[in-house]
Design brief:
- Helices cover 76% and strands 0% of the residues.
- The chain has 15 helices and no strands.
- It has helices at 3-18, 23-37, 43-53, 60-103, 110-135, 139-153, 158-173, 208-221, 226-240, 246-258, 266-298, 302-307, 309-337, 341-356, 361-378.
- By secondary structure, the protein is mainly alpha-helical.
- 49% of the residues are buried.
Length: 379
């Protein structure tokens, strides 16, 4: 293994162990590591990768690890970075799934989450600040970002909002349709998920083939955040197929939120509940495999997109739309998390550590967990 592959292996295995908080937080940590600290990528190219990744199905932050790996060491780097980012979360989730089956409940993790969540918000704020300064190049792009942010907060599907933001933004930047194009934004359709689950349910014994096909389909069509994944799993696993109960699904989602790394390792937990260790392996491979293929095909095209006037405008618009999506995630998380003086204090301290002192994101998460536990004992 050459030095670049070893660097990628060390970095993304560590991030796989410490990257809490969902895709926006993961991307913030990667921006800190590969742009600010190591300077492997420029801010502009990092933004281009974020924007391009947002256009394809699959977990955005995991696909960013693959893009970064490809940039550093080709297809081998893609495989190493992506696999080692996924592996720690998949193994930990599998262990928790075994404990869940043995004892019928989840371990008590709430005291740690009390501090991790506000610390993660600070990491996302830092990422939005850094990426936003680079993405918002003019007033037209600012309008696109605000339009996408507003659309998502009003309930428009994130993938649709992003794509339409890119299209409308390209038109606006190229001075065709002008501000009239913005009038199309309120006409975007809302969320639709049940469309994909026209299958027969009620099976008592689930074959590994069917389980793998289910999660392969999710990996191939999933746009948006972990909240969209929840809708897909509920529609498919609970309502259509009857493979899980609502309570089991909620527990699976809680584990996906608590463990570090990609939220989609919820599939590992679900696979174990349905078919044991083989089910966990098949579900994990199924949901992540499309991402490896999509990134392998997309990455070489991104520099060519920059050479085209129209595609460059489209990519600029998608970049700022992606920042708008991150702001929407930030607002929603803030509403759910900053509910008392303890969480607000942790968020402010983490923000100072991140922006003023540039403390590594992993230490911010660990410090938030410890401080949250201490403050929860104080009351």
């Amino acid at each position: 293994m050459n030095e670049r592959l070893r660097e990628l292996a060390r970095l993304f295995f560590r991030l796989g162990l410490t990257a809490f908080g969902g895709p926006a937080a993961h991307i913030g940590m990667m921006e800190d590591e590969v742009v600010t600290r190591r300077q492997w990528l420029s801010h502009q190219h990092f933004l281009d990768l974020v924007g391009a990744t947002s256009l394809i199905p699959g977990p955005n932050s995991t696909e960013m690890t693959m893009h970064i790996g490809y940039e550093r060491a080709g297809w081998r780097g893609l495989a190493v970075a992506g696999s080692l980012f996924i592996l720690p979360a998949a193994v930990l989730t599998g262990i928790l799934a075994w404990l869940y089956v043995q004892f019928g409940t989840l371990p008590a993790v709430e005291p740690l989450l009390v501090g991790i969540k506000p610390a993660v918000i600070a990491i996302i704020v830092t990422a939005v600040y850094r990426l936003g300064r680079k993405a918002v190049k003019n007033w037209q792009l600012a309008l696109i970002g605000l339009g996408v942010l507003t659309a998502v907060l009003l309930g428009v599907d994130e993938g649709i909002a992003l794509l339409m933001g890119g299209v409308i933004g390209a038109l606006l930047l190229r001075a065709i349709a002008g501000s009239a194009a913005m009038l199309l934004l309120p006409l975007l359709p809302g969320k639709t998920t049940s469309l994909f689950w026209q299958v027969q349910g009620g099976e008592t014994a689930v074959s590994l083939w069917n389980l793998g096909a289910f999660f392969l389909k999710i990996g191939a069509i999933l746009y948006g955040s972990g909240y969209v994944l929840v809708a897909y799993l509920e529609g498919g696993l609970v309502n259509q197929l009857g493979w899980l109960t609502q309570a089991e699904l909620l527990d699976a989602i809680a584990i996906g939120q608590f463990t570090p790394g990609p939220v989609l390792t919820t599939a590992t937990f679900v696979g174990y509940l349905i078919a044991g260790v083989p089910g966990a392996i098949v579900a994990t491979l199924g949901i992540f495999l499309p991402s490896f293929l999509f990134v392998l095909l997309l990455n070489p095209l991104i520099p060519k997109m920059r050479q085209s006037v129209w595609l460059s405008a489209f990519l600029d618009a998608v970049n700022v739309a992606a920042v708008g999506l991150m702001v929407a995630v930030l607002i929603n998380l803030g509403r759910q998390t900053l509910l008392n003086w303890q969480s607000i204090l942790i968020a402010l301290l983490a923000l100072v550590a991140s922006i003023r002192f540039k403390v590594n994101s992993a230490w911010i998460v660990l410090g938030g967990a410890i401080l949250g536990y201490v403050l929860s004992q104080v009351g």
